[in-house]
Design goal:
Shape: rod-shaped
CATH class of the largest domain: Mainly Beta
Subcellular location: Membrane
Helix content: 10-25%
Largest sheet: 6 strands, mixed
Organism: Paramormyrops kingsleyae
Main location: membrane
Keywords: Glycoprotein, Membrane, Signal, Transmembrane, Transmembrane helix
Protein name: T-cell surface antigen CD2-like
Number of strands: 17
Number of domains: 3
CATH superfamily of the largest domain: Immunoglobulins
Strand order of the largest sheet: 1-9-8-3-4-5
Length: 256
């Protein structure tokens, strides 16, 4: 009902091409929180009427000490009207609440139109990982609510926007960290970090093992060469040894 009334009001004001000088705003608020609607004001305010649809929400005119509040602003002090600025504060927002407001100032047709939408904060997202060889697909999952958005960070820098899925390729250093960001206009949450080294665990371990094995082989070979050279240097010269040394001369060269 409120929606139809709001649309009719907008259409009546917008006959022709454009609503010259008029503004239409979408305002988001957190459930149980508050928002402030700020109308367009071009002159001192002598009277102001805020409406929700076609029904009055709050009203004030010169001579009144306090504004009058109506059904949408009750029960309790749910609204606060500042008659000097024209701002209307709406508190205690309710789940799934969507309200339409207009502001009429100094008896003139409404110049400001607002759609107020109350949203729950988003949940902390989780990341599902699917890997094959040197590629992984990361899929972000959060509690689905309206007006939500997914994006991705790599080492704290935004790399993808408005997508639930990220495709990653194995890098040489395996030093990257991926994070999913789940947000709506009133809140933001991040997933636990996904480390590249955990996506491709065999890569770094294999390189370490290969490096250790290569180092061991090199050390063993070096020790053998040093040992043979030392033996050749210290043992006494005999005809038999001289003949043996001549046969090895083409294989090992010792500097001493």
């Amino acid at each position: 009902m409120y929606f139809r009334a709001f649309i009719l009001t907008v259409l009546m004001c917008c006959i022709g091409d454009l609503c010259d000088g008029r503004e239409v705003k979408e305002v988001f608020g957190r459930v149980k929180g508050e928002v402030t609607l700020t109308p367009k004001v071009n002159q001192p305010i002598s009277s102001i009427t805020w409406k929700s649809g076609l029904n009055k929400a709050a009203e004030w005119e010169t001579g009144q000490s306090t504004p009058d509040y109506y059904t949408i602003c009750k029960p309790g002090p749910r609204c606060q009207l500042d008659h000097t600025t024209g701002e209307l504060k709406i508190m205690h927002l309710k789940p799934i609440e969507k309200l339409y407001f207009t502001a009429e100032i100094n008896g003139m047709a409404a110049q400001s139109f607002f759609t107020l939408i109350a949203l729950e904060p988003v949940s902390k997202p989780s990341v599902r990982k699917t890997c094959k060889n040197t590629q992984c697909t990361l899929e972000c999952e959060g509690t689905d609510t309206t007006y939500t958005k997914y994006s991705w960070k790599e080492n704290n820098e935004m790399i993808a926007d408005d997508t639930t899925t990220l495709h990653v390729q194995k890098s040489d250093k395996l030093d990257k960290i991926y994070t999913c960001v789940f947000s709506n206009p009133v809140s933001t949450e991040e997933s636990d970090p996904v480390k590249e080294v955990e996506l491709f665990p065999g890569g770094s371990r294999g390189r370490i093992i290969a490096g250790v094995v290569s180092a061991i082989i090199f050390v063993v070979a070096l020790c053998c060469v040093i040992g043979l050279c030392y033996e050749k240097k210290v043992r006494p010269k005999t005809p038999e040894n001289h003949q043996e040394d001549q046969s090895k001369k083409g294989n090992i060269i010792c500097l001493y």
